[in-house]
Amino acid sequence: MPRRTVVGHLLCKTHRKSYFETKMTENMWIFHSADNSKCVFSIWWCLNFAAVACLLFSPVRTDDACPSSCICARDYGTVTCRDGEDTEVPGNIPEWTSTLILKGRNISTLQRGAFINNGTELEMTALSLSYNGIKTIEPYAFLGLHRLHVLDLSHNQLESISARAFHGLPELRSLYLNQSILPPATEQLSHALSTLRNLHRLELAGNMLKAIPLLDMYNLHALVLINNSIESIEGRDVTILYQKRRIRIYLSLNPFRCNCELEAFYYWLKNSSQCPDAGRLLCSEPEAKRGVPVEKLREEDVDCMNENLEAVSYVFLGIVLALIGVVFLMVLYLNRRGIKRWLNNIREACRDQMEVYHYRYEQDSDPRLANVAV
Question: What is the predicted pLDDT for the residue at 198?
């Protein structure tokens, strides 16, 4: 009986008495019955059949799908979503995304795991969330972005920042928070940033900060505090700056009060190169020094010792004058009787003198008395 190869089907001739013996020959399965009848099945078509079954019954993946109202450029790994009414981060961000730009949305709260895409971790390295009206960042909001290097949260309205808001960002190098921090979130900022051990650049321009934030980040290379409300820098902050010699701090457009309180910062500014924009630091107070560069002040302008000595001298002079006044009053009190007698004598002498003038006036005014006198 000749061998037959049937595509996709199994040809079998059954008999009353049969048992099967199977052997592999030239990628074929050949089944022998007791009377040498044969059944042939192609292994290649078996594999094809299994692959088709997997495709039919497995869920369809949409990793390449671009989120609605967004523009995707896969060649550059960029997804850009601008101007929309969405209140949440898109949930179908492609896994190939390396740069995500969300701008002009209405995302008031960054919720926990906002960027976890279908339970998978994205390979994103840059994320921009500026101009979204973000007010709250919940704990673990950036979970799943373990390779993120750049995060831009500028031009938002942050009122609440969780202490674990940036947890899960071990590779973050640059964080931009320009014009985003409102007063309620100022104190929370230091705690939230403490988890970013590898942060190199931090920008906090235009946030009305009145002091340098307490940052426990020794890997920080650049701290931008331009256009805030810093009037003075305490000696404690200057000590920290001396310890972190690799850091570069930018402080222009702050209203510095150039008085004795600025002494430690003044000498740090003169002896250190850690402030690249030192020449643009200007005094706002007092009025006599308004517009004068801080580094061009004279030492006596910020010398606390001279001011203290001057204050002490004025106090001492006041005490001396007070003592002189007390002594004078005591002398007057002890000599009150003699002084009273002296005053009475002066009064009597003045009275006698006035009577003589009065008498002469009466004579001069009456012509009859004048003739008699003649």
Answer: 92
